[in-house]
Amino acid sequence: MRVPINLSSEPFRRDRPMMVASSALAVVLAGLLCVMIFLVVSERGRAKENRIAVDKLNTQLRTIAAEQAKYDAILRQPANAEVLERSLLLNTLVERKSVSWSKIFSDLESVLPYNVKLIQVRLPAINSHSEVLLDMVVGAASPEPVIGFLKKLEESPLFGPVEGHNSLPPSQNEPLYRYRVTVNYAQKL
User: Fold this and answer.
1) How many Å apart are CA 118 and CA 134, to the nearest integer?
2) How confident is the model at residue 9 (pLDDT cuts 50, 70, 90)?
3) What single DSSP character describes residue 7?
4) pTM for this structure?
């Protein structure tokens, strides 16, 4: 019979590799903690600079808004209201006069196919972005040439996207297919 005899109170274990690996992992984690603390501190500094810049811009914005309100109050006075209305009217007229009809027709001629007729062009409208909007009625003997014309308009750098409003088939009085379209025109004002 064999009797195991253990003279020590605990059996022998190999703990050294585990202790070395734990120590190495603790050093790596401590290094990562230092990197994270550095990043947090530097980000906090950048955020502080950004807050200061935003506060400065907000202060400037409030100053400009106060000045604008003061000028608006002056312009809204009954004595100045007539001058304001007149200046708005004159600015609108000058803006409309700055649109060159000959340039519009020249540019339309460059994209208008021979078998599409320009029936009507309404007075160009100018939107808030100083873009000219052309509202026109075009006609052709069949729909295909008009579709080709609309594609040429969209592909042209002088014109923007085309918006079709309505179409009318030929009638006894008008033998053409008629299409009402609106297009942005890139004429510099």
Assistant:
1) 12
2) low
3) -
4) 0.51
